[in-house]
Amino acid sequence: MQKQRLKQEIGLKLSPQQIQFLGLLQIPLLSLEKRIEEELENNPALEEQAENDNAQEPNEQNWEKNSFRNTNKEDSVREFTHQRELSLQEFLLQQLPMLNLNEKEASISEFIIGCLDDNGFLSRSLLSITDDLLFKMNLEISEYELVPLLKNIQTLDPIGVGARDLQECLLIQLENKPATSSVTNAIEILTKEYSAFSNKNYEKLGRELNLNQEALKAAYKEIGSLNPKPGASFSTQEEGNNFITPDFSLEIQNDELKVVLNNSKVKKLKSSEYYKNMLKNLEDTKGDNEAILFLKDKIEGANWFANALIQREQTLLNTMNCIVEIQLDYFKSGDERTLKPMKLMDIAEKIDLDISTISRVTNSKYIETPYGTFLLKDFFSDAYSKEDGTTISNKVVKSHLKEIIENEDKKRPFSDEDLSDKLSDKGYHIARRTVAKYREQLDFPVARLRRTL
After folding, report:
1. How far, CA to CA in Å, does 13 sit from each of 17, 18, 304?
2. Which of 69, 201, 258, 431 could link 196 by a cystine bridge, Cβ 3.0 to 4.6 Å?
3. Paired sense of beta strands 66-68 and 256-261, if any
4. pLDDT reading at 187 higher than 90
5. What SS3 class is residue 372?
6. Residues near 372 by Cβ (< 8 Å), separated by ≥ 6?
7. Overall number of domains in the chain
8. Which domain holds residue 202?
9. Which pLDDT belongs to residue 197?
10. pLDDT for the residue numbered 6
């Protein structure tokens, strides 16, 4: 007889308004502005607050000569954007008339250009493109017929677009350079020994292609000067409208730290006095019940949304203040090695909020500091215990690992085992597998790929 098990589940059911508030917490500044515009369109009882109206502001927090407060100064917001006037596709389409194509060739070429990814590569197969041309444009054409049209596109600026892989991209660029000995050797390396090139197998390249070390150096330098992502300097229309806007800015003046919540473009909202008066008149005159219910619903919604924005600001400030308080040494110096171990629970306990709330606040918010612009989640890390019992952030270990790799002899780069030994010499006893994980997180390849001539 099978045992019967009784499983008791305890859950917290969130109200629709709580769910909405958590959504407001999670979205970054630019998305918040769009969300406010949507709410203003959907709720006629919600309106923008005049500048001279009294508005509830989040409390200021001051301690130990350090001030953290909210401000609406326009110059506190520094926006970063990679917006361009033209997308890559638009730039290429402008050049098409120079190719002297007939109407059919031009239509197919436009379609191929539309298939390029953001880096300028044709990541789709020619066979799938022929299928699309037949289905969408009723054009029957073979892969073989597409090749010369693709080759024409590959002559357009920026040189290297239209390539089907990195090897072809690099070769296109080399073939458009003057045929010096280093360029000729580079073309031969990429054409005949691409795998050995990718793996930096210098011995095989020298042996198979009869190239000495100086010739290999010159060829690698030539390849290193090429652009592996020729389309990346352009942006699509959608990307062009996306701004990286820090939610906070950190200012340091006379050893005093000031955290600014960048909300100067966020509209202050309130419920409409006009709609509230209309509701009062209907209630006084015992007017239409349906109209009264409609107005009550909209006014309550407007009040809730306006207050939710204030609560959002307070929650963001409380969270950022707590992060700065814990990581004060780092924010004063910018030295990553001064970061302390910090988890979501540490913040949640200090400001009495749920961990999931802190996660939503920190996951997609940026702070601009004199040392760079960072995601809030970048300040969180696990603890590492040294032999003397001292507890430090594992980011400190990563910082030392980065320093070791950057200063290694690139002709004989350290293996992960060697890196583990080097860290041990500094007092950090880290297993080889953990070193490999940290190395990958720091975007360093394995030793053989860090090797140079």
Report:
1. 12, 10, 19
2. 201
3. parallel
4. yes
5. strand
6. none
7. 3
8. 88-224
9. 92
10. 44
Domain match, 59 and 172 both: no
Domain check: are 321 and 295 in the same one?
yes
Global pTM value? 0.59
Same domain, 111 and 169: yes
The string of DSSP codes covering 398-427 is: HHHHHHHHHTS-TTSPPPHHHHHHHHHHTT
- Supply 22's token pair: 């958590």
Strand-pair partners of 342? 381
What 3 state SS string does 159-197 have?
A: CCCCCCCHHHHHHHHHHCCCCCHHHHHHHHHHHHCHHHH
By the 8 A CB rule, do 348 and 354 touch? yes
Specify whether 132 is located in the same domain as 181.
yes
Burial of 60-70, coded b for 16+ CB within 10 Å and e otherwise, reads ebeeeebebbb
How many alpha carbons fall within 13 Å on the CB side of residue 276?
Answer: 11
Q: Is residue 439 one of the residues assigned to a domain?
A: yes
Where does 115-254 show beta strands of DSSP type E? Answer: 248-253
Rounded CA Rg of the chain: 30
Query: 277 and 213, same structural domain?
Result: no
Residue 69 sits in the same domain as residue 102:
no
Any domain includes 20: yes
Asked whether residue 347 is assigned to any structural domain, the reply reads: yes
DSSP letter (8 states) at residue 231: T
Whether residue 9 is predicted with pLDDT greater than 50 in this model: the reply is no
